[in-house]
Structures are given as structure tokens and as C-alpha cells.
């Protein structure tokens, strides 16, 4: 018996190869091999100062526009176990102009976090690649290592081109990782990611309807935290929250209420003056995390921007210097270490980054982008469309963030006017209340107690619990067992 089975297997194997090559046009076979070679070239052996890990990581460039020479940089971690059974999760930080690698991957939720005070990485036991294949993207061009060979592109950025290029990135990235294409796909992000994430989801939804089958992206849902969603309520909520948290005086509050109408496109001079008093406070405490210390010993040689525009409504932001002042994060000084680390040539080489000699250094938030074109005043119409499209949507909010505070997000969600399917209730992380949650018809909202703007940085355990439940489409635990 044995020899004949052997023969049969050999025959079957042989005939399927012949059939496959007969059916597939030459071009596809060539492209498959090229994609595989590109993937192998992106495999990262090990980074300087990296602890040992037992899953693969890849990093490199994906071209999104050949004629202009635009390429976006990514860093990808396979799931820690059974990657072939796990979904793919894309993480996006905001800005506009801030890096998902500097913040998301190295200071928030990636498996390799920046070590404080030395050029080393440390393993994050609450990394989100416990639950998913985890992809970080620096988007748009001009952010971090992502670039364009057409320098004029830097002057023509906005929400729309960001969504378009990110979409093209995904289509091309999945060609490089075809074995992951049929997995469920999710997007998560924070801050100005409140624009990026729903806009990219909408782009995928629209393109899926008309794109050729091989470009289909298996989008199931998205989650956004401390997200910029609506200029009117985000700003009103921000001021209310500051007063309610004893950050500003009655006088400052009343002056702003009297002089500002946040549903107007352009603010008056009186409003700008009233807002100046408000921003002054956030020169002395961290707007993004009310109750943590600020960094008092930043290195003198740092090239890090003293400002950032994380989360700011662009049109509004450009008028107020106050937006641009605060460096981010907790440990409040770790960002300086990240910046020094990513600017080392040996680190860039190991990451396959900066292969074309970008003419400025790596920073958390781009200094190369100083102009932002289109940005809708409200993302709520997009959110409504995505609810209709059957996309799973979770919104979360760290409740000690003063920039896009829980008050703002609650006002925004009320404006959405969805029916409540399960009212406000506490959820638990072990025996402690992790925050509160409410289910609407089509959207779940979760608050995260004691967390600032970058929730995974401040409460890594709760953040991991959050992403796990989101991906499994399961409510957070309502009891304390
Ligand atoms: C490349 O980018 C330019 C400028 O953004 C755009 O006009 C052009 O259509 C893009 N090309 C493709 C193939 O998308
Ligand atoms: C940008 O230009 C460099 C130098 O000519 C080239 O090596 C690189 O491939 C170009 N990038 C893209 C995305 O075309
Ligand atoms: C604020 O501005 C909006 C849009 O211009 C306007 O409809 C509204 O009446 C204004 N509110 C107040 C209180 O002036
Ligand atoms: C600043 O100086 C320190 C000590 O010399 C060095 O380790 C670090 O890489 C420098 N940082 C930058 C951004 O040049
Ligand atoms: C890219 O490399 C050049 C040196 O070739 C360096 O001067 C520049 O700061 C680097 N830029 C980034 C974004 O890493
Ligand atoms: C809310 O529920 C009511 C009663 O079932 C229904 O008539 C209404 O259309 C719902 N509203 C929304 C926004 O879904």
C-alpha cells in the first residue's frame, strides 16, 4: 500500500502546481514573489538594546504614490501567540502630524517600550499584540520616517489625503502580508485619531464596494479614545471640564462663555484674548494628564519640539500659541529618550527606516507639517454613516485628560442622539471600578478612571482589558468577581 499512496500524493501535489500556474497570469506569480521578498526584507532581526521576544516584527516602507514618490513607514508586530488566528489591528496617533511609533508603539501599547533614562527597550507585558497582530503607521507623509520625494506635498496635507494615502498603504501592505488579509481587520487610535480612524474606516467601506476583489479589506470595527470629534462640543466641554476640575477661575470661565461661540468657524479677537488666560494655566500643569507631574529636567540638547498640536482642531489651533507648548506623556520625560533613540543611525538601520536621507530629524510631532488644509468641523456625519454600515464602534475616554476630556465626549455623544440600550454602569478591573460604560444603539462608550490623554500609558492593564473586550465584541465586566 505504502508506495502507491506515496505516488498518489506526489501526483496530486504535482498536478495542483501545474493547474495553479496554468490559471494564474504570469504577472500575479511575479507580484506574489516580489511581495514575499519585500516582506522578508522588512523582517527586523533585533533592535539595539532590545530584550528577547518570541514573535516576529517587521518594519519598512510602503509606497502609496509612485509619481510623487510618497512612502509611509510602518512597524508591525505579530501576535504573541497564534498570529494566524488573531485579527489585524492598526493603531493611529493624532496630531495632526504626530507619530504612532513614537507614541503608540514606544510609549503606549506596543510590546517594546522605551526605557527611561537609557537607550534600551523594555518588554511591555500589557502589549496589545497579546490580542492582535499589531500594526503601527506613521501617517501622513512628513510624520516621523514617512516622506515624500515631492516636497510640495508637505504643503498640501489634510484629512482627505491622509485617509487616501493610508487606504493605499493598507491595500499594498496586505499584498506584502497576504496570509493576514482574510483575518478580521480593526482600527484604533486616539486624539486627532478621532478624525483619522473614522475617515479611514469610511474610505475602506466605500472602496470595498467598488474595488477589485483582491483589494477587499475585511474591516469589522474601530475604537477611538479621547478623540477629537466635534469642534463645538469638544471646545465647550474642554472649558467646562477645566472649571469643574478647579483649574480656572470663575472669572476666566465667564469671560470665555461671554466672548466665545465655539460653533462659529472663525473666533473673535475677544474670544482669543479670553482663551489666552485659559492656556496660561496649562503652561504649569499637564493639560493631557491633570494629576501627574510635568517633565522638569528635559535634556538641554534635545531637539524635541516644545510644542505639539496633538488633538487640536486645526483651524482653531493655528490661532493659539497655547496649543503648541506642552510636551506629552507619562513618565513625563520618557519622550526625550524615545527621540534620542529613534535618531540613532543604528536604530534606523535596524528598523529599515530613513533609507533616503530625510532632511530633518525624527520628532514625535512633525515640524515639517505646518499647514493643514481640510478638516471637517464635525465627524458625527461620518460616525452616523459607519453605524449604518454595520461597523462596530467603541469610544473611550481617560477621565483625567484636560485636552479632549470626558465632558466633551459626553456632550458630543449626546448630540449624536442615539437610543440607549444599556444605561450608565460601572465596569470592573479585578475588584476595582475601571470606569463607567453605556451602550447606545450602534455605539459603546467607556470611561477609563484615572487615565490621561494616552490611556494605555497611564493604565496599561485596563487598556488591555478594553481592547480585548472590544475585539471580542463583549461588554466589560459589570461585576467585581
Ligand atoms: C499621486 O498624488 C498626486 C498629488 O497628491 C495626485 O494628483 C495623483 O492622482 C496621485 N496618483 C495616484 C496614482 O493616486
Ligand atoms: C524617493 O527617491 C529616492 C532617491 O531617488 C528613491 O530611492 C526612493 O525610492 C524614492 N521613493 C519613492 C517612494 O519613490
Ligand atoms: C453661535 O454661532 C452659530 C453659528 O454661527 C449661531 O447659529 C448661533 O446662534 C450662535 N450662538 C449664539 C449664542 O450666539
Ligand atoms: C543628548 O546628549 C546625550 C548625552 O551626551 C546623548 O546620549 C543623547 O543622545 C543626546 N540627544 C540628542 C537628541 O542628541
Ligand atoms: C535621516 O538621516 C539623515 C542622515 O542621513 C539625518 O540627518 C536625518 O536627521 C534623518 N531623518 C530622520 C527623520 O530620521
Ligand atoms: C429610538 O427608539 C424609538 C422607539 O423604539 C424609535 O422610534 C426611534 O426611531 C429610535 N431612534 C433612533 C435614533 O434610533
TrEMBL record:
Family under the similarity heading: Belongs to the peptidase S10 family.
Entry GO CC: vacuole
Molecular function as annotated in GO: serine-type carboxypeptidase activity
GO biological process: proteolysis
EC number assigned by the record: 3.4.16.-
InterPro entries with a match to the protein in the record: AB_hydrolase_fold, Peptidase_S10, Ser_caboxypep_his_AS, Ser_caboxypep_ser_AS
PROSITE patterns in the record: CARBOXYPEPT_SER_HIS (PS00560), CARBOXYPEPT_SER_SER (PS00131)
UniProt name for this protein: Carboxypeptidase
Signal sequence bounds: 1-22
Keywords: Carboxypeptidase, Disulfide bond, Glycoprotein, Hydrolase, Protease, Signal
Group of enzyme by EC: hydrolase
Gene3D superfamilies the record matches: 3.40.50.11320, 6.10.250.940, alpha/beta hydrolase
Amino acid at each position: 500500500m505504502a508506495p502507491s499512496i506515496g505516488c498518489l500524493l506526489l501526483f496530486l501535489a504535482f498536478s495542483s502546481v501545474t493547474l495553479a500556474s496554468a490559471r494564474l497570469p504570469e504577472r500575479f506569480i511575479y507580484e506574489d514573489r516580489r511581495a514575499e521578498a519585500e516582506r522578508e526584507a522588512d523582517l527586523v532581526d533585533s533592535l539595539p538594546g532590545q530584550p528577547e521576544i518570541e514573535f516576529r516584527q517587521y518594519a519598512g516602507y510602503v509606497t502609496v504614490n509612485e509619481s510623487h514618490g510618497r512612502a509611509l513607514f510602518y512597524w508591525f508586530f505579530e501576535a504573541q501567540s497564534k498570529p494566524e488566528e488573531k485579527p489585524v489591528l492598526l493603531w493611529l496617533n493624532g496630531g495632526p502630524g504626530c507619530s504612532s511609533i513614537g507614541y503608540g508603539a514606544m510609549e503606549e501599547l506596543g510590546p517594546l517600550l522605551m526605557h527611561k533614562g537609557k537607550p534600551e527597550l523594555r518588554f511591555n507585558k500589557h502589549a496589545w499584540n497579546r490580542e492582535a497582530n499589531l500594526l503601527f503607521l506613521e501617517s501622513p507623509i512628513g510624520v516621523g520616517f514617512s516622506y515624500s520625494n515631492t516636497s510640495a506635498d508637505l504643503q498640501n496635507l489634510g484629512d482627505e489625503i491622509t485617509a487616501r494615502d493610508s487606504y493605499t498603504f493598507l491595500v499594498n501592505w496586505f499584498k506584502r502580508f497576504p496570509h493576514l488579509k482574510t483575518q478580521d481587520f480593526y482600527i484604533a487610535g486616539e486624539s486627532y485619531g478621532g478624525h483619522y480612524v473614522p475617515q479611514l474606516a469610511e474610505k475602506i467601506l466605500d472602496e470595498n464596494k467598488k474595488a477589485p476583489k483582491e483589494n477587499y479589506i475585511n474591516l469589522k470595527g474601530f475604537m477611538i479614545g479621547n478623540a477629537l470629534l466635534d469642534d463645538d462640543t469638544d471646545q465647550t466641554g474642554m472649558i467646562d471640564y477645566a472649571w469643574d476640575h478647579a483649574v480656572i477661575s470663575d472669572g476666566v470661565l465667564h469671560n470665555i462663555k461671554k466672548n466665545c461661540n465655539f460653533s462659529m468657524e472663525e473666533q473673535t479677537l475677544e474670544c482669543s484674548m479670553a482663551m489666552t488666560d485659559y492656556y496660561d494655566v496649562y503652561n504649569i500643569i499637564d493639560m493631557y494628564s491633570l494629576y501627574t507631574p510635568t517633565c522638569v529636567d528635559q535634556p538641554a540638547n534635545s531637539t524635541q519640539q516644545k510644542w505639539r498640536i496633538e488633538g487640536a482642531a486645526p483651524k482653531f489651533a493655528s490661532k493659539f500659541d497655547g496649543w503648541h507648548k506642552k510636551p506629552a506623556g507619562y513618565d513625563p520625560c520618557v519622550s526625550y529618550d524615545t527621540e534620542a533613540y529613534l535618531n540613532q543611525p543604528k536604530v534606523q538601520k535596524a528598523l529599515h527606516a530613513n533609507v533616503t536621507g530625510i532632511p530633518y530629524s525624527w520628532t514625535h510631532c512633525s515640524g515639517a507639517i505646518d499647514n493643514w488644509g481640510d478638516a471637517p468641523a464635525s465627524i458625527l456625519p461620518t460616525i452616523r454613516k459607519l453605524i449604518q454600515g454595520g461597523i462596530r464602534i467603541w469610544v473611550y475616554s481617560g477621565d483625567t485628560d484636560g485636552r479632549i476630556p470626558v465632558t466633551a465626549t459626553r456632550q458630543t455623544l449626546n448630540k449624536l442622539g442615539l437610543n440607549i440600550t444599556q444605561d450608565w454602569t460601572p465596569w470592573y478591573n479585578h475588584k476595582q471600578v475601571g470606569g463607567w460604560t453605556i451602550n447606545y444603539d450602534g455605539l459603546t462608550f467607556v470611561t477609563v478612571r484615572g487615565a490621561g490623554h494616552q490611556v494605555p500609558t497611564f493604565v496599561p492593564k485596563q487598556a488591555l482589558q478594553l481592547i480585548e473586550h472590544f475585539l471580542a465584541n463583549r461588554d466589560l465586566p459589570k461585576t467585581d468577581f
